[in-house]
Amino acid sequence: MPEPIKVDVANRLNRNLGLFNAGSQVTIDIVTPAGKRGKFRTTFIGFLSKQYVLIQYPDSNKLGGFGQYITQGANITVRGVVEGHEGSIVAFVSPVLQTIQIPSRLMVLDFPKTVSLQNLRSTVRIDTDIKAKVKVNDDYWQASIQDISAKGCQLSVNNGDSLVLSKEQDILIVIEDFQGKSNVKLDAVICNVKTQVDSIAVGVQFKAKASKPIIDLLNAALTSEA
């Protein structure tokens, strides 16, 4: 997997952060000391060059126990789809300077040292949990997409005791509803199969790489909450 391009802050970071319009939807990643990861949707407010970035504090009801880890010094990963640059994302990691309550509840993040600008059409892979159906021959099986990239995805097929899958076998993935995307159909070919305790892990490659439905799914997965 190629490394994202790291942009030097002193020369170009303002321009790249400026790709986020005020009010843009972003997601933040919070990792607990035990390594548990939570992903939450929120809003990019703005920034002051070389000083700080302002992010709307996520809905406390959705944060649950993760809220206790939004403390001074905690690193927060921010990601968002760049408007006007289809299939591109901007991401950076910054520590929390403080949280404020007025005029609204905000997170004040330190101004980041680097920012990643990456095209989703590359091999970037996004962890997700998208409910889907897999058509094998004439039968449909319940499944979930565990991660996705422009080239393929990792499937977990439920209750597949009687299901026989093999490498290079053609399948159809159907996503009935995800983040406003409905009845998305993706033709794929199986790359690898691994039997698990109560499911089958299946790695697949899309036949139409980086097609618009796939990029739309990547964008939706990027801004979906855990």
From TrEMBL:
- Kindly give the InterPro entries that the UniProt entry links to this protein: PilZ_domain, Split_barrel_FMN-bd, T3SS_YcgR_PilZN
Question: Which positions fall inside the PilZ domain?
Answer: 120-211
| Single annotated GO MF | cyclic-di-GMP binding
Q: The Type III secretion system flagellar brake protein YcgR PilZN domain covers which part of the protein? A: 23-112
The record's annotation in Pfam families points to:
PilZ, PilZNR
List the keywords (alphabetical). Answer: Bacterial flagellum, c-di-GMP, Cell projection, Cilium, Flagellum, Nucleotide-binding
What range does the record give for the signal peptide?
none
**What is the protein name stated in its UniProt record?**
Flagellar brake protein
Source organism:
Thalassotalea euphylliae
